[in-house]
Design brief:
The protein is of the alpha+beta class. The protein has 4 helices and 5 strands.
């Protein structure tokens, strides 16, 4: 069974203007718009963030709709970037279908989201650094004293 062709919710280096957006998404999307993922908290990773499912949290990102002719190849490339393999216990991320809220009209939309795999999520909850406000870009802002690292992932 193939995966449904859902848009992607991206919250790290795949957001417009970020390094992996330019490498993987530029010219391959129909739409990119601000969105929020509810019931998740953002944690700082090694140059990219992790969304951890957690009631009450909110993660800021973008809803990206791929061009239909690029969808299958793009899904494969994003899975590879995130090092996601269905059913692999070594995954750092899991690709899950979740409801996100579009920023423009507040409408809920089902989208693919790469969230921290269970083992990674447990470690982040125990020892990780949450990103206050749930927006990875804010944590990197020079006005907030963040660094300017760049890494990979849709998440990333």
């Amino acid at each position: 069974m193939s995966a449904p062709e859902l848009p992607f919710f991206v919250y790290g280096t795949l957001r417009p203007g970020e390094v992996n957006h330019d490498l993987l998404l530029r010219g391959r999307t129909l739409a990119e718009e601000p969105a929020r993922l509810r019931d998740a908290v953002l944690y700082d990773g090694p140059g990219y963030p992790y969304a951890v499912e957690e009631p009450g949290g909110v993660v800021t990102g973008d809803l990206v709709t791929a061009l239909p002719e690029d969808y299958g190849r793009l899904l494969t490339e994003l899975d590879r970037l995130e090092e996601y393999r269905p059913g692999d216990p070594r995954n750092l991320y899991e690709r899950v279908a979740r409801e996100v809220v579009r920023g423009g009209d507040g409408r809920p939309v089902r989208a693919w989201v790469y969230v921290a795999a269970p083992g990674v999520a447990a470690g982040l909850r125990a020892r990780g650094k949450p990103i206050e406000g749930g927006d990875w870009r804010d944590r990197r802002s020079p006005l907030r004293g963040g660094d300017r690292r760049e890494g990979g992932g849709s998440a990333r």
